[in-house]
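Researcher: Predict the fold of Choline transporter-like protein.
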Amino acid sequence: REWRPIVYRKCTDTLWLLLFFLFWAGLMFITGYAVIAGAAERLVLGYDSFGNICGRKNSPVKGAPLSGQDMTNKKYVFFLNSCSLEMQSFKISSLFLCVSSCPQEQLNSLEDLQSFARSNGSCLCVYNLNISSYTLDPKAAELCPTLPVPPSKSFPLFNRCVPQNPECYSKYASVLISMVNEVDVFHRILSGILAGRDTVIGLTVLALAFSFILVLAFRFLWMLLVRILIALVVFGLLFVSGVLWWLYYDYRNDPSTELETEKENVKFLLGYAVFSTIVAVVLLSLILVLRKRLQFTLQLFRIVGKTIGRIPFLLFQPLWTFLILLVFWVFWVAVLLSLGTAGTAQTTSGGQVEYRALSGICYMAWYHFVGLIWTSEFIIACQQMTIAGAVVTCYFNRNKNSPPSHPVLSSISVLFCYHLGTAVKGSFLITILRIPRIILLYLYNILKQKESACAKCLFKCCFCGFWCQESCLRYVNQHAYTTTAINGTDFSTSAKDAVFILAKNSAKLASISCFGDFILFLGKVFVVCFTVFGGLMAFNYHRELQVWVVPLLLVGFFAYVMSHSFLSVFEVTADATFLCFAIDMETNDGSAEKPYFTDQELL
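Model: Structure tokens for Choline transporter-like protein follow.
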């Protein structure tokens, strides 16, 4: 192939861009449907047995005379039978009301209920029973909570009044958790997100700070940082592994560990501890084996640092990528919450209201989930192409002392004018490989009770195989984006040319590149390791009710995505520089007619 760096441009992979637009049209349809049919406020604010959402005004439901009330000042859900809750057909066998405050002291009689309602303005009996009738109406015992009413307080989890009596609390918590355990995975994820939303947001910001500091350190303190990073990763892995084993021992020997959520936390802590220990052993072994190549890595980061010094705005590229990803994730979660609460209100005997899920919601949720993966990968692919384009523009410039003006803006304009379809296709291939892994993981969790060693081994082998394919494809994609930035060809042609030119070059380049990627991977491990440690410390204070397995997984996922987004500046710059160098060696010979573009340090 004749290489023509940044000479010829044409629109690439336009059909894939059209397919992406059609896919997003489907996402917009799901968004509109979720907004119209869903009610995320029910999940966030809570609602009573008559269809009223607590903390807001409500519209009446046909056949439910107690619906349609103004609950603006009644923000908490109170169960009339909180000490003897039971689950019947996925429903709690107790009336529950919206109240303005939870009883702080035990109420032993109807007179106490009446006095509490008059002094606090919080009626704990059914709405159609007047306060003056609490002690006069013969049906008051059926319309008011079971006596004695235990003291309770508003727990920051779905605005519920949680009883403080140990016996009642244990029963209340076990029923609430069993309700979460018996619904499908979709709703469990929703519950996990909402349960730890504040902590997840705080830890996400912490991961953002870690990633940004690490990027600045790579730019200005690269020689010292490589050694410090290796030491910190070794310390972090050993420290987190030790903390995980200590927490597992502490939970396992805690005599109060009786609830299902606590037992589940113990199981996952054991899994986390074993996984962390294995990762620590593997990475420590790799560090010992590859320690002699440290000098090559220092040379790599010297060249990358010089390139980024010529294009300083590359350091801000991950920040815009993160902001775009954050906006998209907030949009995605908002739609997911609305979609998860899409249902029709149906009245039952006694004027109560039940919300039944609409058909087809599960398929919409899967479509929405594919949209999360594909769009996230597309945004990251756009960042990779932007960085690669800027590096290519700077590399293939004869006058190194006078770099091109605004290479980042130039790269963005080329991306949006010509190569969005290429980013769509590359991100779609990653999505195609990731979805089977997720399906296999879902099936594995369903079938793990069968205890078939052969089936478990088969699932793990398939899962590992898809992961290896995805890793290889990511590497090829990154070089394909750089080749597209150089030659202006479509994704398939660029990938073929990139593989050919890399296979033709020396193993020394490959070893330097691989170890550089390994150092950057250690940086990602550093961010994830210390962010997850912060999550362990934060969630450890909520042992009783909060199921923090899902939020902790989300924290780890967000920390990895952010660290990958930030450190990909160095990763893409290094890979693009080596690919440009290989093409430079292929097309030029160093003579006066065909001089090299590269710096003398790489020769």
